[in-house]
Each structure stands twice: as C-alpha cells, then as structure tokens.
Prior knowledge:
Blueprint lengths: L16 H11 L3 H17 L5 H9 L1 E4 L4 E4 H27 L5 H28 L15 H11 L5 H25 L6 H20 L5 H18 L4 H9 L14 H27 L6 H9 L1 H28 L10 H10 L4 H11 L3 H43 L10
Antiparallel strand pairs: 1-2
Helix pairs in contact: 1-11, 2-6, 2-11, 4-7, 4-10, 4-11, 5-7, 5-13, 6-7, 6-16, 8-9, 9-10, 12-13, 12-16, 13-14, 13-16, 14-16, 15-16
Amino acid sequence: MSPGNGQSHTFLGRLPLPERKAVADALRTETVGGMLLLVAAAAALVWANTPLKASYGAVRDAHFGIPAWELDLSVAHWTSDGLLTLFFFVAGAELKRELVSGDLRSPATAALPVVAAVCGMAVPALVYGVTATSGGGSWNGWAVPMATDIAFALGILAVINTHLPSALRAFLLTLAVVDDVGAILVIAAFFTSSLNVAALAGAGLGLGLFYWLHQRKRIHGWYWYLPLAVTVWALAYIGGVHATVAGVAMGLMLRAGHSPLPEKGTLEHIVHVARPLSAGLAAPLFALFALFAAGVSVSAESLRSVLDGPEPLGVAVGLTAGKTLGIFCGTYLAVRFTRARLNPALAWADVFALSVLAGIGFTVSLLLGELAFPDPAQTQSVKAAVLLGSLTSALLATLLLRLRNARYRALYEQETLDLPPNEAPQNA
C-alpha cells in the first residue's frame, strides 16, 4: 500500500492500460530483440568462463518433456528446436507481407535484395569450402557462415543510427527476411535426421487444416491455432525435419489484407498483435538460446583452435570476408545487369558497410554449427569461430557505419546552416 496516494500496488502486477500500451509499442520495435541478445550473449560468455561454468553446463543439459512422444529434450534443444520456431514464424509472415505488398511484390524491386541475399549465402559457403579444403578439412560446415543474425545487426544499427538513411535499415530488413527463409530451407534440406513418414504426413495434414481454417473459413480465434501449431511443431520434430520448418510454413500461410489498416485475422493484424509477445517474451527466450549456445570457453587455446583447424577457420573467414563479398558484389551485379536500382538515398559505401554488418551470423550460425558438427570437441571450436567471425564483423561494421553516420550528420548540419531559420528542419 502506498500511503502517499492511497492506491495499492502489486509487485510485478498488471500495468495500467496507458503503461501497457507504451510497453507494447516499445516492444514492437525490431531492435529490442537485438539488445536482449547482446545482453544474453555477454552473460553466457561470462557464465561459461567463471568458476560457475559447471552450473552452466548443468542447466544447459537438463532434460524435461514427454519421453513417450520423443520430446524429452534438453534445455538447449528446447530453445534451438522450439523457440526458434516462433522466430521463423515471424520471418515467414514478414516474407509473405513483402511478397504481397512490400518490396518483393514486383520482380524489379525484389531483384536487388533477393540477389544480394542469395549471393550472401552462396559466397560464404564457397569461401568456407576453399579455406577448409585447402587446409585438409571437409565441406561439412559449408552452411554455418551463410546466416545473418538480423536481431544483432539491427541492435548495432540502432545504437549507431542517428543520421543514416532510413533506406539502409529497410534494405537490411528485406535482405534479412530472404536470408532467414534461406537458412530454414537449408536446415530442412540438408540437416534432417531419419524421416518418420507417418509423423510428417500428420504435420502436413495439420498445415492443411491451418490453411483451411485461416484462409477458407476465416476463423480468427487464437484458441484454434495455438494447439494446432504446437501439434504441427511436435509432428514435424518427430518426423525428423527441423521443427522450425513448421514455423515458417505457417507464417507463409497467413492471409494478407488489402486495407491500409490491419484487418482482424489478417497477417498485418496478427503480426501487430504478436509483436509485443514476440519481443517481450519470445525474444528474451530466444536470447536464452543465445545464452546456452554462446557459452564457449574464451581462452588462448580456443582462439588457437580456430586458427589451427581448417573447418573453424573456414567458418570465421566465411562470415567476415564471404558475407561482405557476397552481398556487396551481388548488389552491384543486380544493379549492373538487371532492372533493379539502388535506392537514391544510399551510396555504395553504405552498402559495403551493411555487407560487413551482415557478417554477424551469431544465433542461427551457432545452430547450424551444432547440426553440422555433432562431435562436442569440434562443436566448441566452430562456436568459437562463429563468435570470432561475428565479433570481427560487428567491430568493422561499427567503425564503417560510424564514419558514414558522421558523413550524413555533417551533410545535415550543412543543409541546416544553408536554410533560412524558418525553413530549417526541426529534427534529424
């Protein structure tokens, strides 16, 4: 009880409506997840490199679930196989929106981010293969440097961005949607275990029912879809396909509206309502995945294993050099040989800085590393390589973006000085 105003306050209780609305609006920003991931990754590295690292391993490897349904998983597996499904559901929904009403609606506008994203996946895989095989290694980890961690990239861009063109962030978002879906297709096609045909058939029937209820019958109640989504996810996992496929499939099945305002039951409405839940609940839990996945021992020995091992070195070089070359050259080739055009607000220096930023492959790359290298000793070296490559890309991109931001700030200040006082812009 608060004696000052006579109102009682419950600890961690339900916030008043204005505060709930403010929190929900804040959580709808895409950069919140990136900030949480940064905090979780830092906590993981500290936890895994202190005398408490034994408790870290105990929490990570603790099992719970339903053994009779083959769902008795460790905490790490629940996060990587379960929580990432929600992440890819949002990615699938965003891709559907881009295909229907966004930048991917027409071939001319879709060519640039699509070509950039495809090249940004193919070139790192090729760079990995050349680096690893030249040192006597294998092609096993070719997929690890392909993925860009959009949440981390947006988090860094949000910290730096004060005068950068808004088109830079839009380009990153569109590219990342294609990149995310490409990553899940790679997981589905190349990293599946032995298939359970009956379970996969059940998952397919569940997806068909999802489509029929949502697209045909226009049923809006979440209580229909939540149990169905969990069932489809479980059947996909039991079937031997990485269960995140179910998330992106359901996201692509959402019905897009045609009104500027979100219509109830449409993709826009669902994303609008789910965004606070995704950023306020799923993103922290997704950050928990980063917490468990990033917990590698940082030492001279782990860094040496990256430089001495052909596969880890291929991963690190693929993220830093491969991503930059793939996205930048892909963008240039698309502009040079197709009808795609670079946004007039962007310069090629901006695209290069963004290409370096895309070398942050943290979360999904760690997942792909575990799938590609099941041996625990090799997994640790590959994780260290992902962290080293991602950190190098993040530092270089931060430097380049700060230089570009300073350039745009100087241009803004010059334009402000040149304008009459009554015509000067009020904000950046």
